[in-house]
Amino acid sequence: MATVSSVTPIKTLLNPVIEQALSNTLPINQLLRRPVIEAATGWTRSTIYRNIDKGLFSLPISLGGGRVAWPQTEVQALNQARIAGKSDAEIKSLVIELEALRSGSNPETYQRPPKVKAPCRRRSARGVQ
Q1: Tell me: the pLDDT tens digits for 74-90?
Q2: Which domains can be identified in the chain, with CATH numbers?
Q3: How far apart are CA 69 and CA 33, in angstroms?
């Protein structure tokens, strides 16, 4: 059985996937769906969208067919800012910067798209949708 000496870096003993996660470098900027965002942030669906409205979380990217996702790097950056104890004002600035970079705009001149109101559902005569 091999013994680990004090000069052997711990990273060389870890699985490459864990090593990559520890290095915070990802080969692909994956798009994460809402259930993954809920797990990563600890928030519910309503809290995610409330924070988007407040400017405390980045806007989702449309995947078509009513599906949306968020870039993994943006979620990681926002989680790291929260872990570091950044204020809401600092997080709002970070959200603007991330969204501007995503669209290729200058963060100083970037304007978030206006909030789109969700269509209301009409109730049938029985009150069932």
Answers
A1: 999 999 999 999 999 99
A2: 29-103 (1.10.1660.10)
A3: 5
